[in-house]
Amino acid sequence: MILSSPKVMIKKTMIKTALILGISSVFTGPVLADYPQRPISLVIPFGTGGPTDISARALARTLSDKVPKPIVIVNQTGGGGAVGSVTVAHARGDGYKMLAARTGSQSVSLAMKSNMPYTLADFKFVGIYELNPVVCVTNSNSGITTMKQLIDLVNSKPKTVSFSSAGVGALQHLAGVMVLNAFGVENPLETAIHLPMNGGGAAATAVLNGTATFECANSSSVAGFIKNGQMTPLMVATKERVEGIDAPTVAELGHPELEKLVGWTGIAGPKSLSNESVDAWEKWLKVTTSDAGFVETMTKLGSQVVYMGPEESFDFIQSQYLDFRTIVEKLDMQIN
Amino acid sequence: MNFLDTLLEALSLVTQSGSILALAIGVVVGVVCGAIPGMSATMAVALTLPFTFALEPVVGILLLLGVYKGGIFGGSIPAILIKTPGTPASSATILDGYPMAEKGQAGKALGMALYASCTADIISNLALILFAGWLASFAMGFGPPEFFTLMVFSLMIIAGISGNQLMKGLVSAALGLLLATVGLDLVYGTDRFIMGNVNLMGGLNFIVVLIGLFALPEIITFAMSPSDKHGKVRQLGGTHVTFQEYKSCFRTIFRGGVIGAVLGSIPGIGAAPAAFLSYSEARRKSPNKDNFGKGEIEGVAASEAGNNGVCGSTLIPLLALGIPGDVVTAIIIGAFMVHGIQPGPLLFQDHGSLVYALFMGLILSSVFLLFFGSFAIRIFKYIADVPKSILLPAVLILCVFGSYAINNSMFDVMVMFALGWLGYFLMRLEMPAAPFLIAFILGPLLEDNFRQSMLMSNGSLDILFRGWITWGFWTLSAITLFCLIKSHWDTKKTSAAKKRVLETEPAS
Fold first, then answer.
1. Which residue in A92, B111, B399, B467 has its CB near the most CB atoms, within 10 A?
2. Average pLDDT value for residue range B310-317
3. Mean pLDDT for chain B?
4. Which range marks the domain in which residue B310 is found?
5. Contact B97, B226 (CB under 8 A)
């Protein structure tokens, strides 16, 4: 054969096309849904090794055999979670860029800082999968074992009691102020000293080496120190007692309004997120939060695995944000 | 169970094939990841963590420790060969490592980096095993005022590294301090110099600044006048470290290892300041003082001993108190907790065999590091023989990739290029870049700890003189300052005398 006739050429092209289509269909596997068709990036707005990072990586690992496409973890740090959050807020709503949302970046910072480059309305939450109760602790050598002793000390010796936090606008910062205020300290920011440290680990260390008198932090970051007897828990900001932490609840102490103080991790997309992606994530989170291995891992890390759907999550975050906003305005804690 | 039983049980935990394999794999993964710019030791450890959930506690933790140690050493490979540190900890290694590679002694520099790393590693491990309790209580004495005085002392390094060009060094350091102020204010939470750009809210990334400042100026210079003439000089990449050289550097390595071990036990300092402190101490004490920064093997030994000296002792606050001293140990604590083990004072009672198994594993890891490290050097040192016209474009790609990979941000790539030009102009003005970098690392620590101290004391400066640790650092700072002024005076005198001699000679 010297020259192929046009007919043969067409036939060849058709075969080629068929082959390509065939191969591609082999690679994509049986088409179940339109989402996801390619890997999904999960942006963690905090550094590698932090509590959000470890929690989101554990989630992604459990999801790996439940999601047909890989979930790629992307750490984008900076500005207390602002840099990573804003990337997702500005992303397309096709569900290929999602955010590991967290108390600090999605509720406390928003309530305290006027300079945040996003608002709650910029996100669509697909669910919350982890809760961290807040515990107030002191150094075991400090001699302070109850909230009453702490408050008395604050009132009798103003400007001597200090509390540490992971930084301005972190949960520990607001929590310390809220707790003192709820227990009757008129102007917590004047009578007690807020010590911003570089991160949650440094905040716990400050209590351990006596730099700070107390801190109100996520249970996961202090549970070990309590277990070892290095820190004394004064109260837990929950309705019911927390296992392994021998301290009264805020309900027992008569301050149920402090139950709003709780850390959480959830998944969010930009506000334009397609319904299809929301449904898919809702399903995945539901399966993951009932996965025995995942629950075990998270519990050992000091967290409570929960499942909250899209609406429930949004209501939860919104009401926490509004509560925080009220206290920030009341105590004039706004940061410009 | 008596002590011997615990030891025997620990031995059986370590000698099982899984543990040994995990350590070996860990070290290899660490060296490779550390050698890739933009993949820091921290990232490598974080990526390894999920694999440890399914493993036995000892095996999993040994895997992570292997990655960590390998990563810290691995970072020195690109620092020496292409002036781009693989991890922040190896930034001090550039100062003498790269000039050595330029002189054709890449093999020697890499070899010394490895031997110094392994030696300091062993010192650090011994510090952990023998002095854990003592060092932990020392570390607990470190509040913000103590940190502040330590930083004051450390900033004296700038004067040491600038050498005879103190003025230029100080200008460079001031620029570094200026750029370090970008980002969020620690105490008030307000924005500083972010110029409305969200990407600047977190400040400038350390590794991005590092890559821009050191690696790019080389590439820009080469692009301005491309030639392969250096290729010939660099072809001697196959030189080795002699035992004599190791012996002459041993004092420096030992000192670096001890500095690293002590600083490593204090939470929140990290490997980079330890490396710089070890470097400046070595320079101060060395007979080859003037050769530092120009390719002095002792400089490489000092900085690598300083940064690897941190590795073992960061486990002191972790195991003895349950406090993670840096990001890596924060990840390792996660691995403990997943298995329901709580590090802290009770660990030695409850899980004695695990602790001793870790100690044995750590000693073993130094041996593995020596073995796999020398293998890695044998492969990597040929990079030194690649002509610049091929090497530098490849390095440029690595710089861009590395800057992007840290935070997955194009903005960081632009920052890297901007700092590259800054670094280039610093180079043209013969201003040393190292003071810039040191100020950039230590400046924020100095400021934050000062302000935290002031918060603690309601503005009274007395707090900066509390306790013997602060007094100790003030005294050290005063001595260093005195020596500096004296040596500056002496060199001025001798150079003036020389000048006079030169002026009078032709007349006579």
1. B399
2. 91
3. 87
4. 3-489
5. no
Does A15 contact B at CB distance below 8 Å? no
Interface of A with B in 251-290 (CB under 8 A): none
> Structural domains in chain A?
40-131+262-330 (3.40.190.150), 133-260 (3.40.190.10)
Q: What is the largest CA-CA distance in chain A?
A: 104
Q: Read off the pLDDT of each residue in B224-249 and give the average, rounded to a whole number.
A: 72
- How far A98 CA lies from chain B's nearest CA (Å)? 14
The ipTM of this complex is 0.85
Instruction: Give the Cβ contact number of residue B6 at 10 Å.
Output: 18
Q: Is B452 on the interface with A (CB under 8 A)?
A: yes
Computed over every residue of chain A, the mean pLDDT equals: 88
A264: its two tokens: 């959480």
The proportion of chain A whose per-residue pLDDT surpasses 70, expressed as a percent, equals 90
Digit-coded pLDDT (tens) for B89-113 = 888 999 999 999 888 888 899 999 9
| Peptide linkage before B217 cis (omega within 30 of 0) | no
Query: Does the beta-carbon distance from B456 to A195 stay under 8 Å?
Result: yes
Contact across the interface for B53 and A205, Cβ inside 8 Å = no
Residue B333 pLDDT level (bands cut at 50, 70, 90): confident
pLDDT exceeds 90 at position B128: yes
Distance CA A180, CA A176 (A): 6
Site of tokens 């108390």: A103
Provide the number of structural domains found in chain B.
1
Distance CA B400, CA B394 (A): 10
